Amino acid sequence: MAALKYSRQREVIKEYLSNTDDHPTADTVYMHVRQAFPRISLGTVYRNLNLLADMGEANKITTPDGAVRFDGITYPHYHVLCTECGRLFDLDMEVQDSITEQAKACFSGTINSHSAMFYGVCSHCRKQKQ
């Protein structure tokens, strides 16, 4: 595979992802990146986000409603989805590697890793209900 050519646009997208904990959609990334590159297309943002995910420099998270979110944190970690507002949060807990080992024992194929999504109500939405 040929070396990937440097792209300032891709670098700005990666920088935005690494400086937000909002787990943005491609549309949200597009709105922010347009501040630096007013002529950038949504297609370019999508291509670069997918490329970053393929290269392991971003994580792609598909939520139950079908929306795809992007995360600049690339090490394994869990997420919580607020069932009220739809925000996605990082969960500060240790990844349970034992789950992968238990799954390997129950599966005749190969299991390399796992991911988990937790569901609940965020503190902001909980306060709004009170």
Structure description:
- The chain is α+β, with helices and mostly antiparallel strands and 130 residues long.
- Helices cover 37% and strands 16% of the residues.
- It has helices at 8-18, 26-33, 42-54, 97-105, 123-129; strands at residues 59-62, 68-71, 78-82, 88-91, 117-120.
- The strands form two sheets. A three-stranded mixed β-sheet has the order 4-3-5, with no helix packed on it. It has a two-stranded antiparallel sheet with strand order 1-2.
- A hairpin with a 5-residue loop joins strand 1 (59-62) and strand 2 (68-71).
- Helix 1 (8-18) packs across helix 3 (42-54).
- The mean pLDDT is 94.
Output the strand order for the largest sheet: 4-3-5
Q: Rounded to an integer, what's the Rg over CA atoms? A: 17 Å
Structural classification: alpha+beta
Apparent shape: flat
Percentage of residues in DSSP E strands: 15-25%
**Main sheet?**
3 strands, mixed
Number of helical segments with 4 or more residues: 5
Distance between the termini: 56 Å
Mean pLDDT: 94
Give the key terms.
130 residues, alpha+beta, 3-stranded mixed sheet, two-stranded antiparallel ribbon, 5 helices, flat
